[in-house]
């Protein structure tokens, strides 16, 4: 690891001289693996520069006891690193995009988004128990998860299960699951983290709208790079890396979340898929797909099928030559669930997306549809409940 006090990179807009690019990240193994992915691509695009990685423990890493929903903010993963970025001691920060607030500090911006790994959640069952899916778990089985989004959706579909908070990095959580005297029957984790760490064999089953009825978190599986808004050098470096398809899909998701004023403590689930040519949409997605408010003029001439299965490089456009050609049409599923899982509002829309502005508007329109269908009341009740709990704690 590099020194604790990084020096700022030379601010050379033309990037013709050798730079030392200081890249910040959290200290966890997964964060370092993701940072290595980013630095590897930067080295390929800009081999003439040097890259130094600076890892630090954030508030979320230091406090492994408090339940995540009690923090009521995503800044616990980003604040300390952003302070170094603001002081020009870092040139960019590598984040799991789902941990980034949708409203960044005014002097910061999202420099780029890297190709998405599988965004689905994954069920990990305690070794030796033999259960293969959520539906096969016995009455009273304890599911470990730190996400109210996951627990709310699971309570709605699997009321026979119990839920307990579990904190720590992936290795710590798996150790708690595997302990002979541990309370957990299974965990629900992001598939992307397990895959990036080479722990594919720990995945019992994947969870999605088609598999388990669970929608993932906004930005899940994607890597976001935060930079200073006025740092043209860092932005030029990042212009050669990242993924346009992932960027547009994730910006639409983040717009949805920002409009609903949700966070990691609010049960909002989402899925986005790029439509491909060649197969009739109606034969694979079914009925009731809401068309966006502003579809392209030739929408009725297009056919396609929502991509299923892995949504990493296949979805990002990196392997277009190996499958059906994308139409530029994005499908979004979204859901808001009450904390107890008893109420839920969901919608599904699709629209042709070519620009970041269109992606932002699409997310806003999906959020509006959810609110019109009753999501606003669910979110209002959640916020009211949180306020009551906070007031009781102050009493």
UniProtKB/TrEMBL annotation:
PANTHER family: PORPHOBILINOGEN DEAMINASE. InterPro entries: HemC, Porphobilin_deaminase_cofac_BS, Porphobilin_deaminase_N, Porphobilinogen_deaminase_C, Porphobilinogen_deaminase_C_sf. Residues 21-235 form the Porphobilinogen deaminase N-terminal domain. Residues 248-285 form the Porphobilinogen deaminase C-terminal domain. Its EC number is 2.5.1.61. Pfam families: Porphobil_deam, Porphobil_deamC. Pathway: Porphyrin-containing compound metabolism; protoporphyrin-IX biosynthesis; coproporphyrinogen-III from 5-aminolevulinate: step 2/4. Keywords: Heme biosynthesis, Porphyrin biosynthesis, Transferase. This is hydroxymethylbilane synthase. The keyword Nucleotidyltransferase does not apply. Its cofactor is dipyrromethane. It is an enzyme of class 2 (transferase). Coiled coil: none annotated. Belongs to the HMBS family. It comes from the Eukaryota.
